[in-house]
Request: fold
Amino acid sequence: MFLLKYPWQIACAALLALCVFLGVSNSNLRSTLAEERAEWKTERDNAAKAKRDAETKAKEAANDAQKAYEQLSKDDSPVVRYIERNRVQVCPAAARAVKDKSAAVPQVPAPVTIVAISEPDIKACDGAYVYAKSAYDYGQELIAKGLAE
Reply:
C-alpha cells in the first residue's frame, strides 16, 4: 500500500540509494585505478632504467672492443717479423745458375714443398684475424655482462 501511495518518493529514494552506491563504488574504482597507474608507472620506469643500463653496458663493451681492435690493428709487428723471417731469399748460386744457361737442373726434388704467399695476402689474413678476434671478444664480453646469450 505504501508503494502505491508514494511512488515518486520511493523512486527518488531508490535513485538516491543508487547514486550513493555508485559514488562509493566509483571512489573504490578510483583508488584501484590510481594504484594500478602507480604500479604501471613504476614498472615502466624500471624497464626504462634497465634499458638505459643495458645500452650503457653495450656501449662500454663496444668501445672496449673497438679499442682492442684498434690496438691489434696498430700492432702488426708480428706480421712484419713473420714476413721478414719467411721472405723468399735469392740464393747467390741460383742467381749464377740463371746467368749460366749451361747449369744443370738438380734431379733431386726439394724435401718440402715450398709455398710462397704474397705480402699483401699475409696482411689481409692478419687483418681478417684481428677483426674476427675482436668480434669474438666483443661477443664474449656481451655474454659475460648478461646482454646476450
Notes: The radius of gyration is 42 Å. The chain has one domain: 28-103+115-144. The chain has five helices and no strands.
